[in-house]
Amino acid sequence: MGVAFAWIGVLLLPTAIGGSVLGGIRLYREWSAHRPSAPVPGQPIELLAADLCRLHAAVEAAENDMTHTLYKAARVRAVRGAYLDALRDACKAVGISPPASRAEGIPVADIYRTEVALRKCGLDVRCR
User: Fold this and answer.
1) Exposed/middle/buried for residue 71 (C-beta within 10 Å: 0-12, 13-18, 19+)
2) pTM above 0.85, yes or no
3) Is there a domain that residue 128 lies in?
4) pLDDT per residue over 96-114, tens digit each?
């Protein structure tokens, strides 16, 4: 009977060691993922302003384009999404509240309110 338990122990020992090693690796990865990383510096305000001007013009051009109607909605959505990301970055840089996002999208009134607030801070998005 004692020999049977010894054989079971010998057969299960590599599995236990392997499980311990894999558990240790998972624990280390989980621990390293939750460590605070170094803060990433933001873009200079001049680059943010240039991006906003370029993307605002691209949104207007995509919305008003009547020649290329194939996949127009997807193109407008993609350009508008990039513009909203740049708008959020600019809001974060100057310290104002970004437009509130909702499940159905961001209302145009919130976008206009944010553009006016940025203009008051000296960052005009309607560059011509």
Assistant:
1) exposed
2) no
3) no
4) 988 877 767 788 888 889 9
